[in-house]
Amino acid sequence: QVQLVESGGGLVQAGGSLRLSCAVSGLTFSSNVMGWFRQAPGKEREFVGCITWNGGSTYYAESVKGRFTISRDYAKNTVYLQMNRLTPEDTAVYYCARSATWEMVPSKYHYWGQGTQVTVSS
């Protein structure tokens, strides 16, 4: 059974940092792409960034480039989203997801976590 479990969300002041984790089980990682998305109230789910499990190549949305970093830990089967210099516009539920190919569209990701809330106060 495939499971993706996010953790690490919370309330932080503007300018602060958070690190989200996505623990993955039930997947063989050899050809996976792990993505991070977010969804604010009343808005569509938005691509944040992704990483190839094997090579560690990353790609980020312009809105987070230079502030957010995605990494993965083979031993722990975990993907991370380090978020720095947070702003109130980053407030959303953050999700990790898996795709078999390099994608930025939510519909191309077929396994999702339950999400973790990130709230940035001004």
Structural description of this entry:
- With 122 residues, the chain is mainly β.
- The protein is 0% helix and 51% strand.
- It has no helices and 11 strands.
- The protein has strands spanning 3-7, 10-13, 18-25, 33-39, 46-52, 58-60, 68-73, 78-83, 92-99, 111-112, 116-121.
- The strands form 2 sheets. Strands 2, 4, 5, 6, 9, 10 and 11 form a 7-stranded mixed β-sheet that branches.
- A hairpin with a 6-residue loop joins strand 4 and strand 5 (46-52).
- The protein is globular.
- The termini are far apart.
Contiguous runs where pLDDT drops below 50 for at least 5 residues? none
**Main β-sheet: number of strands, strand sense, barrel status?**
7 strands, mixed
Into which percent range does the helicity of residues fall? under 10%
Counted by DSSP, the helix tally is: 0
